[in-house]
Amino acid sequence: MLRISDVSYRYKTRKIPTLKHLSLHVTEGEMLLLAGCSGCGKSTLIKAVSGLLNTAGAGELDGKIYLNNKDTAEMTPEDIGILVGTVYQSPDDQLFAMTVSDEVGFALENQGLDENIISVEVQKVLERVGLAGFEQNSIHTLSGGQRQRLALASVLITKPKLLVLDEPVSQMNPQGVEDFLQLLVSLNRIDGITIIVVEHRVNELAKYFPRLAVMFEGEVIYDGPIELAWQKIGSAEKYGLREPQKVKLCRFLHLSKLIDETSKVVDLIKSECKIEKTALTVRSKKACSEAIVTGKAIRYRYPGSTSDTLQGIDFELYKGETVALMGFNGAGKSTLINLLGGLAELSSGELDLLGGTVGERAYEIGYLRQEPDLMLLADSVWEELTWKNKKVRKEVVWELLEKLKLENNTNDFPLALSKGQRLRVVLGALLARNPKLLLLDEPTTGQDQQSLEEIKKLIAYFSQMGGCVLFCTHDIELASEIADRVIIMANGKLIANGAPEVILSDRWILSAGGLTVPPLLEVSEALLLPKCITVEGVGRYVSTAVMGRL
Amino acid sequence: MSVRQLWEGCDAAVWARKLDGRTKLLILFLVAVLAIVVDNPRTLFLLFTATLLLHLSARTSIYKWQVLAILLLLGLWGSMFSQALFFAQTPRTPLFVIIEPTMPVLGQITGGLYIYREGVIYGAVQGLRSAMMLSLGLFVCWTSDPRQLLKALITWRLSPQIAFMLVTAIRFLPVLAAEAGEVIIALRLRSDTRVGRKSIIRHLPYIAKPLLARCLRRAQTLALSVVSRGFFLATARKDEFWHTKEKFVCCLLIIFTIGITFSKIVYLLSEQGLYFGNLRIVYDWTKLYL
Amino acid sequence: MIKRNFCWIVIAVFMLSQTAFAEGINLETVYPYSLEHKNIYKTVGSATNPFYINIESYDAPEPQDVNVEILLPEGLTFNEDDDWQEVKTGKGLIIKRSWTLPANYGQNFDLLYLRANEKLTEGKHDIVVKVSGKSWQKNNNITFTHEFGEKNVDAINLQEKQLDSSKFNWYIQSVTLPVDNLGNKDDRIQERTVYIKDTALESFRNRMTGDGATNWAAVFNHPAAHLLLEMRNPQQDTRILKFRAELIDKATGKLATGLCTASQSDNETEHGWSGKSGIEDASTAMISLDGKKSQAFIIPLYVDYFRVVEGEYNLRVTVFGNGQEKIQEVPITIAKKRSMGLFAVAFSFGCFILVCLTIGQLKKCIFDIGAKGAITIALFAAVAFGSIVVPTTLFGDLLHVFLGPFSGLLTGVLNGVLLYLLVMSLLVIYRKPGIVALMFLLKWMLAGLMFGRFTPLGILSYMVYIVVLESILYISGFYRKQELTSGYVFIVAILIGTADAFITMINLEQMMFFYRLYYADWYIGLYMLINGLLYSSIGSWLGYKVGIKLQQVMGE
Question: Superkingdom of the source (chain B) (predicted)?
Answer without folding.
Answer: Bacteria
